[in-house]
Design brief:
single chain; mainly beta; Jelly Rolls; 2 helices; 8 strands; about 10% helix; globular
Length: about 150
């Protein structure tokens, strides 16, 4: 719960978001060799809220909170956020994001928050010797369960 409180506090406080692609490295379709299978990833759903039952009335959608650990050398495979916006807080460690819009890997460090939304297509790799711990809040589309297995 401390991680959730820190995530909410940092969003409310307007803190800087996680690393972004350097302006001179922005490009389209930069991922020729994207990882396609998870390696060393533990993904635990902590809780969720059925948004069809809330005032927003979003059928087949849940607001989901997860904890993810990526082992040294671990990979979160290529996936899209076309239908699943997410906020990711790096609790500990450092991890590189490989984005379809950037010609170089983007470093995310402990305390950073990554905003993932329409147009985001990427994969992540832990290139360090220590595990990376993430807290993830996303809106998942339960109407597309087969697709969600690919999204982590």
């Amino acid at each position: 719960m401390a991680a959730v409180a820190a995530l909410v506090a940092s969003l409310a406080g307007g803190n800087a978001h996680a690393g972004e692609c350097p302006a001179d490295k922005v490009m389209a379709n930069a991922l020729a060799d994207a990882a396609t299978a998870p390696v060393g990833v533990t993904d635990t759903e902590l809780s969720s809220i059925d948004l069809a039952k809330e005032n927003v009335h979003l059928a087949q959608r849940r607001l989901r909170l997860r904890h993810m650990t990526i082992a040294p050398g671990g990979v979160v495979p290529f996936h899209s956020h076309e239908d699943r916006p997410a906020l990711i807080m790096v609790n500990s460690g450092e991890i590189y994001e490989n984005s379809s819009k950037c010609g170089v890997p983007i470093l995310h460090k402990a305390g950073d928050i990554s905003r993932e939304f329409l147009g985001t297509k990427h994969w992540w790799k832990n290139s360090t010797n220590a595990p990376v711990e993430l807290t993830i809040a996303d809106i998942v589309n339960d109407g597309k369960p087969a697709t969600m297995k690919e999204h982590m």
